[in-house]
Amino acid sequence: MVEATWGWNLHKEIPSSKDAAHEVIEHLLRAASDAGWEGRDFFHIQMAIEEALVNAVTHGNKESPDKVVELEFKVTAETVFMRIKDQGAGFCPDKLPDPRDDDHLECTNGRGVMLIREMMTQVQYNDIGNEVIMVKQRKKG
Amino acid sequence: MVEATWGWNLHKEIPSSKDAAHEVIEHLLRAASDAGWEGRDFFHIQMAIEEALVNAVTHGNKESPDKVVELEFKVTAETVFMRIKDQGAGFCPDKLPDPRDDDHLECTNGRGVMLIREMMTQVQYNDIGNEVIMVKQRKKG
Amino acid sequence: MIDRRRMVVARIGELAIVRFTDKKIVDSANIEEMGDEMFSLVDKEHIKHVLLNFHGVEFLSSAALNKLILMDKKIKAVGGILRICELTEDILQVFIITRLNRVFDIRKTEAEGLKAFGASS
Amino acid sequence: MIDRRRMVVARIGELAIVRFTDKKIVDSANIEEMGDEMFSLVDKEHIKHVLLNFHGVEFLSSAALNKLILMDKKIKAVGGILRICELTEDILQVFIITRLNRVFDIRKTEAEGLKAFGASS
Ligand SMILES: Nc1ncnc2c1ncn2[C@@H]1O[C@H](COP(=O)(O)OP(=O)(O)O)[C@@H](O)[C@H]1O
Ligand SMILES: Nc1ncnc2c1ncn2[C@@H]1O[C@H](COP(=O)(O)OP(=O)(O)O)[C@@H](O)[C@H]1O
Questions:
Q1: Residues of chain D neighbouring A96 (CB-CB closer than 8 A)
Q2: Over the stretch C29-46, which tens digit does the pLDDT of each residue have?
């Protein structure tokens, strides 16, 4: 059974606050660390979850007390799977300006989604843009 | 004296909430209406102040209770001047993707700044992007 | 009966005709309610087609446009059609400036909107 | 004495050396405080040049990068220079991925940073 290979799972809803986000991020990171993730890969997981969850809470749910963020995490020694869904209006992740363009270098926003894409093995937004699935696969060798 | 031509002035700070924003918008619109603004020009003023002030409160100050938005309005029969400054990190208004591009048409964000630009006679952001000056000049004739 | 505060809904089978209660639809607490009430037509009440009648709405901001786009996506996802009618001249101009008149099927009157659905009131 | 919670500052005339107290600089309440404390060096304490020493900082998110860019603009506006030192390998990689290594003058050690300012500790 494929399911049996997933070591640590979490599926829950959290309120739309940065504090709640950072609390659950700590749980995830502890689980990842327990599963043997470290070094740059660990750093990348931390960056991706930080950026995606803060986006869900702020841009998506606009920190509304009436909205929740749905989370699904699965952690093994080989793979970290993170699904984050907010109740906001979404956005167009493919249409963002590239923050690495010379003209954008000094912009004070717009790097989160790019960093997620650079640091994860696989990133998939849904049609509307209010859900993202991020997967980090351990490098072979 | 040039100053004497300004009929209604307001210079104040408001808290970073949408409610406070909409309250002051009502004041401005009443003053504009009293000064004889109506029809499409009035609609355009309403759109510009709504978009700019909501941006200042949400994107700029992120609705922080510790931050304020500084407002300066000057209304005469000929001109409406609006200056809005938030205490956020700013952004790059010239680098936004054009929401009118075919690929962006169904995006659920990113139309506010474009609408302001289309509807005002003059729009000027400061270097950092946390202050905007918008002017509407009555059409001649 | 469903308790709605931001809109009044008339149902004809799978078609809903929606009228808004606010004169201004802007980015305030109300707009979330407006969005939620609109989306629940599709998500919970199994409505497939919607005619939004903006009679009496004098102003809307980009936040309202975003809700309409999301509604359009929801309706398309269930194979339905969203139509819009009774826009003021000023609001119609907003749809033209944003080119959203290419996304939405905009009709002048409710009767014309209904006719496009093959229904009548 | 100025009460600072997110950083420790050593002053050498118009130059300030800043060390951060948090191991992680992320988009939380602390980051606003961090930004405000950093900006007040320029806005209120008439510091012109700043060396940010990231010793002990293990993680920072894009929200922190945004604060650094704003700080850089503030310092440039008063004719000063911002330099950065003691980044971990992982954080340095973030500067490289974002190409912000082209915006900031990044030095390996505090001594090298100070030397670039023509100062020594
Ligand atoms: N979950 C989300 N819901 C709605 N909009 C989002 C979401 N995530 C990102 N965005 C949009 O994408 C833009 C870019 O996001 P990002 O790259 O993280 O940079 P930043 O958050 O600094 O603006 C945001 O400004 C926002 O408009
Ligand atoms: N005052 C501001 N401070 C910081 N960022 C802003 C401000 N105003 C606008 N922005 C940025 O510009 C983007 C585009 O704004 P806008 O065109 O109004 O569309 P929307 O608000 O729907 O995203 C916003 O997503 C935000 O990242």
A1: none
A2: 899 899 999 999 999 999
Question: Ligand 1: which of D31, D62, D67 to mutate, judged by most atoms within 8 Å of the beta carbon?
Answer: D62
CA distance A51 to A46: 9
CB A9 within 8 A of CB A19: no
First to last CA, chain A: 25
Ligand sitting nearest the alpha carbon of B88: 2
Nearest chain A residue to B100, by CA: A95
Q: What is the ipTM metric for this complex? A: 0.85
How many whole angstroms separate alpha carbon D61 and alpha carbon A112? 8
Q: How far apart are CA B132 and CA B123, in angstroms?
A: 7
Question: Which has the closest alpha carbon to C72: C110, C94, C102?
Answer: C102
CB contact under 8 Å between A89 and C67, yes or no, is yes
Disruptive mutation site among A63, A86, A87, A126 for chain C (greatest number of C CBs within 10 Å): A87
How many residues can be counted in chain B? 141
- Across all residues in chain A, what is the average pLDDT? 93
Burial class (CB in 10 A: 0-12, 13-18, 19+), A82: buried
Q: Which three-class secondary structure state does DSSP give residue B135?
A: strand
Smallest Cα distance from B84 to chain C, Å: 17
